[in-house]
Amino acid sequence: MASKIGIAFVKGGIIPAAIMKKDKDVHVPPHDAIEVPADYAQHLIDDKFAYAKDVEKPAKDDRKGKGAAAMVAAEKAVADAEAKVTAAADDIAAKADAEQELSDAQAALATLKG
Questions:
Q1: How many CA atoms, within 13 angstroms, populate the side-chain half-sphere of residue 71?
Q2: What is the pTM of this model?
Q3: Contacts for 68 with CB less than 8 Å, ≥ 6 apart
């Protein structure tokens, strides 16, 4: 038998901190999969509080791709905001909004770059 099994609660549930070896209890929404120790999982399944469900784990390459995609999206947001600033040349209100959008986009990009 596997040491951990993926389960999902029918109506949501709370897994005690001691079971998960964490500082706080883990609150799990209905039908969201989580891995728990096999004995505890079987107990929840037998009592019909939960059912067996595979836990999807993203591949390492997928996680890197998401970071790169976020960086591309942030760079595009900066470019779009710069275009809005240029387009709003004489409209003071529109230019102020565009400059704020540009500032926010630049901050988001700086955060992603670290």
A1: 9
A2: 0.49
A3: none
* Domain extents in the chain: 4-52, 60-113
> Residue 62: CA atoms inside 13 Å, Cβ hemisphere, count?
4
CA distance 44 to 15: 10
d(CA 50, CA 46): 8
Interior/surface letters 77-104, b for 16+ CB within 10 angstroms, e for the rest: bbeebbebbeebeeeeeebeebeebbee
Tell me the pLDDT of the chain (114 aa) as tens digits. Answer: 559 999 999 999 999 999 989 999 999 999 999 999 999 999 999 999 999 998 887 555 444 556 777 778 888 888 888 888 888 878 888 888 888 888 888 888 777 776
